[in-house]
């Protein structure tokens, strides 16, 4: 068994301190994946180095993503899709006779 040194493990664990995650609040053993229940409320949890503790609340997946990734919206700018130029590319439909 390959054991890593304790100092490396502690450094890896401490690097995650402050990390946030969103957990859907669904009842029972239902699906917990975010894409299956986009309108379900979310609990925002923060890693403190030992366990996930409550940090906040989000009404749905879109709001949870704004909390988890605040810089993603500023970087995402809608761009026009590239226009296809002339030519017979590999994936283009052949001209209809």
From TrEMBL:
It comes from the Bacteria. InterPro entries: DUF6087 (IPR045733). Residues 72-97 are annotated as: Disordered. This is DUF6087 family protein.
């Amino acid at each position: 068994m390959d054991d890593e040194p304790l100092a490396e493990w502690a450094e890896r664990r401490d690097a995650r301190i402050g990390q946030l995650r969103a957990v859907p609040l669904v009842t029972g053993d239902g699906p917990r994946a975010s894409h299956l229940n986009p309108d379900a409320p979310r609990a925002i949890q923060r890693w403190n180095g030992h366990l996930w503790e409550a940090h906040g609340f989000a009404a749905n997946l879109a709001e949870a993503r704004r909390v988890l990734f605040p810089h993603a919206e500023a970087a995402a700018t809608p761009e026009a899709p590239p226009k296809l130029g002339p030519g017979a590319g590999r994936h283009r439909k052949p001209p209809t006779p």
